[in-house]
Design goal:
mainly alpha; single chain; flat; two-stranded antiparallel sheet; 2 strands
Length: 204
């Protein structure tokens, strides 16, 4: 049985369908390949990272090895000398940086009590400024009314209770602060700094 050839329109539709199917298959293969490579890299990352670092180091140190080899030094000995020199340089850098970090940290821990005293002194001086005292006294002289809601079985009674002004007529330590700006409170608020400094100093 002879099958008639497709018309030009049918051939164009068939070609578009096959092209779309091929593109979809290619995209699926690429996505699957990328996903599979990601899974492999994730699984082998503990092994690949050291290999990558070793490869970078070998690439960077290869010119020096070639130079030593030109000086009639066997390649194994040249590689050994280069890696030993690199390790010594890294150890020298760490040996010069780490003591400075430890020293600076110890000095910071020893100076924490002085820093806390300076902070406390600055806070006290800021509180004693006339503008701050005027602002605090104005807030103490005009307290906000306190509304209390009392519910009974017969009716809802709203009672407005105004807070009475302070008995001392407004001093440097207003009542609404609850005496939180006195010297003892400031010392207790910053008293943990010397203890933290001693603990930090004891870690080194």
């Amino acid at each position: 049985m002879n099958i008639p050839p497709p018309s030009p329109k049918q051939a164009r539709i068939l070609w578009l369908a096959l092209t779309g199917l091929a593109l979809a298959t290619l995209v699926a293969l690429i996505v699957g390949l990328v996903w599979g490579l990601g899974q492999v890299v994730q699984i082998l990352s503990p092994v690949l990272w050291p290999l990558a670092v070793a490869g970078v180091l070998a690439y960077l140190l290869d010119p020096l090895v070639d130079w030593l080899e030109k000086k009639r030094l066997p390649r194994p000995r040249a590689i050994l000398c280069v890696f030993v020199a690199a390790l010594l340089m890294i150890a020298a850098v760490f040996g010069s940086v780490i003591p400075q970090i430890v020293l600076q940290t110890r000095e910071l821990a020893e100076n924490i009590p002085q820093y806390s005293a300076k902070v406390e002194e600055r806070v006290k001086r800021w509180i004693e400024k006339p503008i701050v005292q005027q602002f605090l006294n104005s807030k103490a002289d005009h307290p906000a009314p306190e509304t209390l809601s009392v519910t009974t079985n017969e009716a809802n009674i709203v009672v407005t209770n105004s807070t009475p002004p302070p008995a001392n007529g407004g001093t440097n330590n207003p009542a609404f602060l609850g005496g939180s700006l006195d010297k003892e409170t400031l010392q207790s608020a910053t008293g943990w700094l010397p203890t933290a400094g001693k603990w930090l100093f004891g870690q080194f």
